[in-house]
Design a protein that fits this description.
Largest sheet of chain A: 7 strands, mixed, barrel
Order of helices and strands of chain B: HHEEEEHEEEEHEEHEEEEHHH
Strand order of the largest sheet of chain A: 1-2-6-9-8-7-5
Strand content of chain B: 15-25%
Helix content of chain A: 10-25%
Helix content of chain B: 25-40%
Strand order of the largest sheet of chain B: 11-12-8-10-9-14
Shape of chain A: extended
Oligomer: heterodimer
């Protein structure tokens, strides 16, 4: 099993079920690195002060909230820690609702919930009760320092936790220019007929990420053809190292006992 | 078995496929504590924990757990990542070692500096990593080159196995210096050897170029990096140990082309310590300074 991202227990009333939360999805997006076109070396990011153009060390940074353009309220790490939700070890169930009522728009990220140590019985019972009642649990979980709204439901033999967006994070659809025109019954019947004709069972395996496949194919071909930027000469030592190297060489030559001549070894001290 | 003041949880759990248990790990570290602790003294440890043994996933842990026995002392180092000080574990006695073993912390990885002077390394390290098909004997030949080169500038060196595939050469300093001096020095030595012997040695990280050569990793001379400690077990399929060597052993093995002479398990290391004492003792007590480079 994958490493637990969180362990604790599901809790409501007098019920307490030890569980572990593990990832349910592993996005396969391709990530690229930025190289210098000239020497193919990796580029690094630096923090540059916008005022004096100097590079800034991490210990001279402040977190601040922009209240108005150019106007900031700084918050210390201690203040941020103070305000962070307590890293509780429980998923507090607040309500049970019917899954049909939950708009998929709120779904944020899915996780699996696995039984914790000696929790098999309680886990199985809870899963079965959720399944047979058609209800899902709504509660709160603290991941790292963020408190999430979460929904727990039965899925086959497992429990699945999906973090949810808070209602005030969802953009109201009133902000869209939505049509209000009249539609005839005939048009509607025709459109529904077309939908029916194209309706199949949902089989997610049938849909592939064509873009990723295409890019991976291209990368494979280029790599087989030897178009590998990593083979470019690695970073040459800087001036200080080169100077040191020359000084080392010079002092070895001067003593007439370089790397090849020092058969006596270093023990004579 | 020694008297366990720190009770082990699941002492009979095999951490290695050879059946080497958590108790065996704790007993090994306890048995060699007098020599091991000298090298761990005041050095912040990065924990590498194998809760389900060497063949299951491990995780790194830098922050010292809040609850720890008196044999573990927490020292705070600045963490740029967190922008706050972070407490690290340092081991001070046998029970501290046993407690680390109980966390299934099989390997001991330490910084080159001590917690009281985090910018001041006590030695320069050259970590020799063979790119297959190069092996430990190729490492041995490059290690001897480093020894001879540094002897040419009056620096004595020590050598140990990494406990995995390679060797590590140390030049003990134990005098005031900074990583800003040791790192470019190590880089210059590596670059010089790579220049002299380009068919055998590389001085940069690119894995693609390492094939059949020895990579002299100089970059570990850095306040943020850790290197496996002398006498640390390694999480291989058997309880291999990072073992201090005498230079004549390295010469002997190189002459005979016998890599097996440079591989030691926990029992062999216990016997070596009983017979020869601590071959790495100079690492903590030899005072040397880097040659004065160009300004």
């Amino acid at each position: 099993m994958a490493r637990a991202l969180w362990s604790g227990s599901i809790s409501f009333g007098l019920v307490n079920i030890p569980v572990r939360v593990v990832g349910a999805v592993a996005p396969k997006d391709l990530h690229f690195h930025l190289l210098h076109d000239k020497d193919k070396a990796r580029l690094r990011q630096k923090r540059i002060c916008s005022l004096d153009g100097e590079e800034v060390d991490a210990r001279h940074t402040l977190r601040a909230y922009e209240t108005a353009p150019g106007s900031y309220v700084p918050l210390t790490d201690a203040e941020l820690r103070e305000a962070a939700p307590e890293a509780t070890r429980t998923i507090d169930i607040q309500d049970f609702v019917s899954l049909k009522e939950v708009d998929p728009l709120y779904f944020e990220h899915p996780y699996y919930v696995a039984p914790g140590p000696s929790a098999d019985k309680a886990y199985a019972l809870f899963r079965r009760a959720c399944e047979e009642s058609g209800r899902v649990a709504v509660g709160r979980i603290v991941f790292h320092t963020k408190q999430h709204l979460a929904l727990i439901r039965a899925r086959d033999k497992a429990l699945v936790l999906t973090t949810l967006y808070y209602a005030d994070e969802v953009i109201p659809q009133e902000s869209l220019p939505l049509p209000a025109g009249a539609i005839t019954d005939r048009e509607l019947a025709l459109a529904k007929q077309l939908i029916d004709d194209l309706t199949v069972p949902f089989e997610p395996e049938r849909y592939k990420d064509d873009y990723r496949e295409t890019l991976l194919g291209l990368i494979r071909t280029k790599s087989e053809q030897g178009t590998v930027a990593a083979a470019a000469p690695a970073r040459e030592p800087g001036a200080r190292v080169v100077n040191l190297m020359e000084a080392l060489e010079a002092s070895l030559v001067q003593r007439g006992r370089g790397a090849k001549g020092a058969a006596a070894g270093p023990r004579a001290r | 078995m020694t008297n366990a003041a720190v009770p082990l949880t699941h002492p009979d759990k095999a951490l290695y496929p050879t059946g080497f248990t958590k108790r065996d790990v704790a007993d090994f570290y306890r048995s060699i504590a007098p020599v091991l602790l000298v090298h761990l003294r005041d050095r912040p440890l990065t924990l590498k924990r194998y809760p389900n043994g060497v063949q299951a996933p491990f995780f790194y842990e830098k922050e010292c757990p809040k609850r720890h026995p008196p044999g573990i002392r927490a020292v705070a180092l600045w963490s740029a990542h967190r922008n706050a000080p972070l407490p690290y574990c340092t081991a001070t006695d046998e029970e501290g070692l046993a407690w680390l073993a109980n966390l299934a912390n099989i390997e001991l990885h330490t910084t080159l500096s001590r917690g009281c002077a985090p910018d001041c390394p006590t030695s320069v390290v050259f970590d020799l990593d063979p790119g297959a098909p190069a092996d430990v004997i190729d490492c041995a030949r490059v290690a001897l080159q480093i020894r001879d080169l540094l002897a040419g500038v009056d620096l004595e060196t020590l050598v140990k196995t990494s406990g995995s595939k390679g060797l590590q050469v140390y030049a003990p300093l134990n005098t005031p210096t900074t990583f800003a001096d040791t790192k470019p020095f190590a880089h210059a030595v590596a670059a010089l050897l790579a220049k002299r012997d380009p068919d055998r040695v590389v001085a940069h990280m690119s894995r693609a170029l390492r094939h059949g050569k020895i990579f002299i990793d100089w970059s570990q001379n850095d306040p943020h990096k850790t290197t496996v400690s002398a006498y640390s077990l390694r999480a291989l399929t058997w309880p291999s140990v990072s073992t201090p060597l005498a230079w004549r052993e390295v010469e002997h093995a190189a002459r005979l082309d016998r890599g097996d002479l440079l591989r030691f398990d926990s029992a062999a290391v216990q016997r070596r310590i009983a017979r020869h004492g601590d071959l790495f003792a100079d690492h903590a007590r030899l005072h040397q300074t880097l040659p004065r480079g160009p300004a």
